[in-house]
Amino acid sequence: MIKDVLVHLDGSSDDEIRLAHGEAIAAASQAHVTGLFTNVLPDLASLTPMDGAAAAGVVAELDDEARRAGDRTQQRLSERFSRLSVPSELRRLDGTPGQLIGQVVSEARRADLFVTKRPYENSGSAQWDDLFEAVLFGGGRGIYVVPPGRQPPDTIRRILVAWRDTRETTRAVAEAAPFIEKATRTSVLLVDPPKTPDGKSSLDIDIARHLNRYGSQVEVDFVTSNGRAVSDIILDHAHRMSADLIVMGGYGHSRVREWILGGTSRDMLERSDLPVLMAH
Predict the structure, then answer these.
(1) Domains of the chain by range and CATH?
(2) Which residues pair with 115 in a beta bridge?
(3) What confidence tens digit (pLDDT) does each residue in 266-279 have?
(4) Using an 8 Å Cβ cutoff, are 186 and 217 in contact?
């Protein structure tokens, strides 16, 4: 059950897209939307070394400027929130990137779903990449990742579950349960599933039975990658079924290894043009 949707807002042009997704999710679930506006303040440690008095003066000036810019953005966002069709509120956090990360993680723990922008966009917003990872690993909730420019569907009817027999995937499916319950079609995709001695597996039956109890029409597809990237297979399957949402676990093995070698989780976050619900 989703009753609290937390939408990350940073004053950028993408705020409207994320807010539209949050509003659509809340409308379908009769939920409350909280917009979390993170206003970045200058970090003394990031400034060019200078004497203490000069540094203090520069920081004070930059801090005042950042807060005034935040006031303007907050006013604009407040006007937008007044037109939302669901119960809502706007919260503001001011701080350096390092300070904001811990505060946002804490806020995410008190909501049912965290809606955020797609990370790793190479657009100069590395602090939000760190924030995404902090919420994924420390928030304890599912993260709904919105691709750039992707408008929300009227209703999330078709869901693709990229299944692996891992704790992370299980967590993602649990967080996606309210969506699966209302979906008209759920496809469970298994890429290169483990072989059994008899060449068969009850896994597809078990997964289908479990998700079918949510009331969705469930189908299971086994696919052999044959050297193709798993992310390509997931996205191809999602597009063929016109999926409204992809559900998958986040970082199924060592983060260091995934960072060095790539990995399906990061590939999907970088490339997916469809919303992804991810959990760890």
Answers:
(1) 4-146 (3.40.50.620), 158-279 (3.40.50.620)
(2) 7, 144
(3) 899 999 999 999 99
(4) yes
